[in-house]
Amino acid sequence: MRSLPPLNMLRVFEEVARHRSFSRAAKALSVTQGAVSRQIKQLEDYLGVSLFVRTSRGLTLTESGSSLSPHMSEAFDQIERALQSVRIPNLRQRLRILAPPTWATRWLSPRLRSFLQRYPDISLSVTNQLDNDSPAELDCRIRFGLEAAPHCHSQLLVMERHIAVASPELFDDERPPELDAHPLLHILHESKRLKVWENWLEAMGRADVDASQGIEFSTLDQVIHTALAGGGIAVIDRQMIERELADGSLLPITPAEVVGPYGYWLDIPTDKRGLSKVQRFQDWLELVSNP
């Protein structure tokens, strides 16, 4: 029988050695910093040596830690390769993502080519509905919300950047349309009207416009298509209408932009954090969200 400490100790050590930080390792593992510290202390007690030392520049590996670190990284790489080699091929690299439909259509889809070119061995399944019969099959979720979600790794990807836009049909030469001359287009979220117009008008100092008037829609795409047809004026996250702004089919009525308060969050269940396909998707999202 092999004489080994619990593998979780070694995994924690590998994360701390890679990040050179207890707090960042704890975040990566979705555990508390105290739990990481205890695992390292138990491993040091098992080995009878110190693995890390705190310096003015942060956490540094000792000679013993430096010797152990590359072996642990290679060992976990070998374990991952071994596990992947025996998994069912069409399942082991299928990444299942739950995402809002408009975000998936207008933000994710135009960027997917770069992900697929970078990771051709990963097959994507993007849905906007959670299958209650098999929620455990979900690998991660993109969520529209105000704050981080509890009980999982929750990371803000990007905040909304709202601008007021209208079809060129509503402009008089280059003069933008008056806000009280056309319906205001509103979006519902979880059956409640988002206060994007109220927030935008307050930021513009416009107390003369009745934000309650207008038309409500259940999806952002409906709002966008109505605005494109000249059916009203909308306040929309500019990241959702990049194509329309570029080709001039929607025009800002003012260059002013209001950030937040909502944003798009990446939520990863704790038991999915160690999967390489999830880590690759997370790394790619961070790259394309902050070019």
TrEMBL record:
One of its GO terms (molecular function) is sequence-specific DNA binding. Keywords: DNA-binding, Transcription, Transcription regulation. Residues 5-62 form the HTH lysR-type domain. GO terms for biological process: DNA-templated transcription; positive regulation of biosynthetic process. InterPro entries: LysR-type_TF_proteobact-type (IPR058163), LysR_HTH_N (IPR000847), LysR_subst-bd (IPR005119), WH-like_DNA-bd_sf (IPR036388), WH_DNA-bd_sf (IPR036390). The keyword DNA-binding applies. The keyword Transcription applies. Belongs to the LysR transcriptional regulatory family. PANTHER family: HTH-TYPE TRANSCRIPTIONAL REGULATOR, HTH-TYPE TRANSCRIPTIONAL REGULATOR PERR. This is Glycine cleavage system transcriptional activator.
